[in-house]
Amino acid sequence: xxxxxxxxxxxxxxxxxxxxxxxxxxxxxxxxxxxxxxxxxxxxxxxxxxxxxxxxxxxxxxxxxxxxxxxxxxxxxxxxxxxxxxxxxxxxxxxxxxxxxxxxxxxxxxxxxxxxxxxxxxxxxxxxxxxxxxxxxxxxxxxxxxxxxxxxxxxxxxxxxxxxxxxxxxxxxxxxxxxxxxxxxxxxxxxxxxxxxxxxxxxxxxxxxxxxxxxxxxxxxxxxxxxxxxxxxxxxxxxxxxxxxxxxxxxxxxxxxxxxxxxxxxxxxxxxxxxxxxxxxxxxxxxxxxxxxxxxxxxxxxxxxxxxxxxxxxxxxxxxxxxxxxxxxxxxxxxxxxxxxxxxxxxxxxxxxxxxxxxxxxxxxxxxxxxxxxxxxxxxxxxxxxxxxxxxxxxxxxxxxxxxxxxxxxxxxxxxxxxxxxxxxxxxxxxxxxxxxxxxxxxxxxxxxxxxxxxxxxxxxxxxxxx
Length: 467
Description:
This protein has 17 helices and 13 strands. With 467 residues, it is of the alpha/beta class. The protein has an 11-stranded mixed sheet with strand order 1-3-2-6-8-7-12-13-11-9-10, with helices on both faces. Strands 4-5 form a two-stranded antiparallel sheet. It is globular. It starts with 8 loop residues before the first helix and ends in a 10-residue tail after the last helix. The model has no long low-confidence stretch (mean pLDDT 96).
């Protein structure tokens, strides 16, 4: 049954419908893989295997009766723990919420289950989903399947790790600063941050408010590019997503940008050049340019997030009452804080934009300028851009300095659709990849480019130690 652990969700659904394999067999294969890898990875933090088997048997019985089935009938998946999944924990890594169980499904979870998907469990996150290391005081730290000494990214890091390790064909993530794309990149799988305000964010904790709800996006992570469009059609509204396979690559304008807020490693630059050549070979018109404003990515993101309103991060940590970050840092040094260092660091620095209102206004203006420039330069084509400055760093390394997430975060406040595309492995056996960005509403174009790059450049390569 090893092939079940590398097949797309679409292929699994097709085989289940044809009767080539039962839903129970597919669920059991993935459960066995999770049980095998999870002691090392700590990716699935609460399982529902017996419930999943019951649902699989029901799915098989329904198919045997000839009843109508959904697009994901009998296919297993995993869900990021910040989404409400009935009967499962929904702490978002906040120790004060330990023991909290969801009483209903989040909007996106309900759509997946309504299409026939079977949830195997929930996966790890960073504390309150606001850092790129999936580590918290409730569940501990998740490790990378390609090298357990390295990060899986965050905040959808548990999803990235378990999908890459073959334990789940797809999963549900969320992204306000790269939380789908960085885990997808570090773990060598596909992820998609949709155009803003396309997929309902209801049922996540913490909730986004006001304009921030446009910057937060819900989207899929998966091992095969062909799953992205079907999953987006299930998760999205009634309006149709154009067919990615129909995207004409011949003549497509491709803007390739490699410079940003910090230097990018040679192995990632080499991977991006390989992607450029692959698209040129298909007839695309590739041009390399710089966009100097991207050097201000973190400042612009922080200013636009602050202006969006809603409760502060400090208030979220304190469940309505702002914590004293300085006091908690002192307790952390004594091993007595319920919070992680990245969360406290964010609570400490989040007030900075409000202390400099004139500079904040200038950054908001720059944000508007960058949004217009990206729209003009990308046009109806795509932009290739690094996902990070290096391959998956070792644990704790992202704090030194804590700026590299700006490569992904900027596109949330720009409200652009972005597909994270894996491009195989580096010479050291670690995933490489890049972001494919398009104009708002042109999600199908990034997906179409992703399909081509998967075919030409390697796509997801299963972590060797778990195959």
